[in-house]
Amino acid sequence: MDYSPLRTALADVVAIPVTPYDAQGAVDRTAYRALLRRLLDGGVKAVTPNGNTGEFYALTLEERRLVTELTVEEAAGRAAVLVGVGHDAATAVEAARHARAAGADMVMVHQPVHPYVAQDGWIDYHRTIAEAVPGLGVVPYLRNPLIEGAAIARLGEECPNVIGVKYAVQDATRFAAVARDAGLDRFVWVAGLAELYAPSYWAVGATGFTSGLVNVAPNVSLDMLGALRAGDYPGAMKVWEQIRRFEDLRAERQSANNVTVVKEALAAMGLCRRDVRAPSKPLPEPRRAEVAAIVEGWSV
C-alpha cells in the first residue's frame, strides 16, 4: 500500500479537536461539527478525534465512536482523519476496526497507561493493533522516555503500516537520538508537545507537530508551520512568543488545564461551552479573563 499521502498529512499541523458538551453534559454534535468545519476552512490537513485534548479518557465507548463518525463525515476527504485509540489491546483493536469501518485514514495509539511497560511488551501491544488494521496508517503516541529507537525500528520492520511517531517526551536531545536510532526517514516524526516544542524538535528531525491551540487560532498554528518549513526560525519564535502565555497556562500543574484553557478560549469566542469533565476543572474567573484577553490579541 502507498502510504505517502498519509505521511504527507502527518508532516503538517495535526489538530486535536476538543469535544464540546451541551447543557445536559452530552457531546454537542452541532458544536463539534462547527468546530471541525472551522479547522478545515482554516487549512488544517489532519485531525485527531479522541486525542487527549478531546478528553479521550473521559469519553465513553459510545461517545468515542460518535466522535470518530462525526469527524469522518465532516472531514469528507478534506483532511486525513487520525483516530485516537487505546486502553487494553482488545479495546484498542476494536476501536481501530471501528475507525476503519467508519472511513478513517489512520489511528493514533495512545501511550499505554499500564504501570509496567517493557520494551518488548510495548512492541507487542502496538503490533497487535497494527496487524488488526493493515489498511490503516498507525502512529504510536510516545510519552515514555525509556522506549528506545531500536524498539521503534523493530516495530516498523514488523508492521509496514506504522508510518509515524507522535513523540511527546520533553527532551529534544533524547528525541534526536531516538529518531535517528529508529530511522529518521522511515517514520514521520511528529512533535507531540505542540507549538512551544515544535521549533526545537523541528531542528533535529520533526516535520509535523500536534496542536490543541489550533482549535482557537488555526492561522497562528499554520503561521508557525510556514516559518518552520521555510527554515525561518526567527519567524517561528515570533509566533512562539505570541502563544507562550497561553501554552504556559495549559502546561501548569502537569498540564492540569490543558483542555480547560482551550475550551475557555472557545467559550470566550462563543464557539462552545467551557464545560470539561473530571478530573479536569473549569478555570476560576480571573484566569478566564486572562485567556479572553490573550485570544482577543490574536485577532482570530
TrEMBL record:
One Pfam family linked to the record: DHDPS
CDD domains: DHDPS-like
Active site: 141, 166
Record's signal peptide: none
Top-rank lineage group of the source organism: Bacteria
UniProt xrefs under SUPFAM superfamilies: Aldolase (SSF51569)
Sorted UniProt keywords: Lyase
InterPro entries given in the database record: Aldolase_TIM, DapA-like
Residues noted as binding pyruvate in the record, renumbered to the chain: 53
A GO term, aspect molecular function: 4-hydroxy-tetrahydrodipicolinate synthase activity
Record family assignment: Belongs to the DapA family.
Protein's name in the database: Dihydrodipicolinate synthase family protein
Organism: Streptomyces malaysiensis
Organism ancestry: Bacteria, Bacillati, Actinomycetota, Actinomycetes, Kitasatosporales
